[in-house]
Amino acid sequence: MFIDVDCSQIKKFGQNAFGDYFVSKRSDKQERLIAVLSDGLGSGIKANILSCMTSTMLLRFIEEDIPIQKAAQTIMDSLPVCQIRKISYATFSAIDCRSDGNVWVVEEGNPTFLLIRNGEEIALEAKEYTSPKFPDRHLQLYQFKAEVGDRIIFCSDGVTQAGIGTKEYPLGLKREGFLQCVKKCVRDNPEISSTELSTQVIQKALSAEPLEHAGDDISCAVLYFRKPRKALIFTGPPYNKMKDREYCLSFECFAGKKAICGGTTANLVSRELRREIVNLSAVTSGNLPPVAAMEGVDLVTEGILTLTRAAEYLEKEELSHQDAAGQLVDFMLSSDIIEFMVGAMLNQAHYDPSLPIEIEVRRTIIKKIKKLLENKYFKQVVIHYM
Q1: What percent of the chain is predicted at pLDDT more than 70?
Q2: Model pTM score
Q3: Which domain holds residue 239?
Q4: Considering only CA atoms, which of 308, 326, 329 is closest in space to residue 376?
Q5: Where does a domain end: 191, 226, 261?
Q6: Each residue of 36-80: pLDDT tens digit?
Q7: Domain match, 194 and 262 both
């Protein structure tokens, strides 16, 4: 199974920093995913520091194969108490899951997570542990086996307490409102991604607030267990022309979505597979050449310029552009495993001194995209050089 993970957040109105902090990490072989959501006391910079410290330390402990219960107990017993409010400086939820479906969840102070299967909540029993140092702190530990299609949803109390004190939500959205929002989203779109679901949850919470001004930091993290969505991007002609047809046939036989980046590459595939290239528009969009179409290919774009712009969008998290680079970003982010077939033949046009200096050679920009997709968007990326 592939685990699709993402977290959406909104800062407390008037603050410049998130008081909640989310961090996740996959193993090198993609067989394990660890994620932690921490809610720092209060809001702003102080809360950000507290939640960041809590979540990163807990993730590191779990990553070092310290049992999740022991790791969480260590953090729980170490967190100091606010001298004014007499409560912990941070709360947290952590999950350690494997591709075979084995899941461990531990929570302290955060709203109880949801496990959604076939559109309904699955009730789970927890083992509870009380801190010997702080008797009012309780740890809930869950262990279960996830199935394909399951979703695990965490949130900070900015979701469950959204709208508190208003006429419609005098006690806040509460866990019931959180659950109903999730169930409706899944019912309306059974294939909804983690990104979309987490975004819709925080938008629901924000809509409950007076004037839609967040009264607290609002965070929602989603893990979605499903079969992986694969995509292949072919860019640059192979170094050895004798293998042109071999690579084109590999591209054609790939089981998943396919894209071509580069006019030379598109012409190569067109020639070897006898597929016509159809120009969809003669008008450029955003100073980039327009996209084209080819039978059996989901997206055809120009090469280096489009890849460079796509890397910029990924880095700046500008994901709403509709030009060729924006469409390429959508293509990649809608997939879980992205493979690149990167040709090693040099294109002298890329060394034209009249071109902008920031344009990087193909292999360098692909490596940059790989790093961004893995570190910022939790994707699995493989590069094949030809």
Answers
A1: 92
A2: 0.78
A3: 230-385
A4: 329
A5: 226
A6: 999 998 899 999 999 999 999 999 999 999 999 999 999 998 887
A7: no
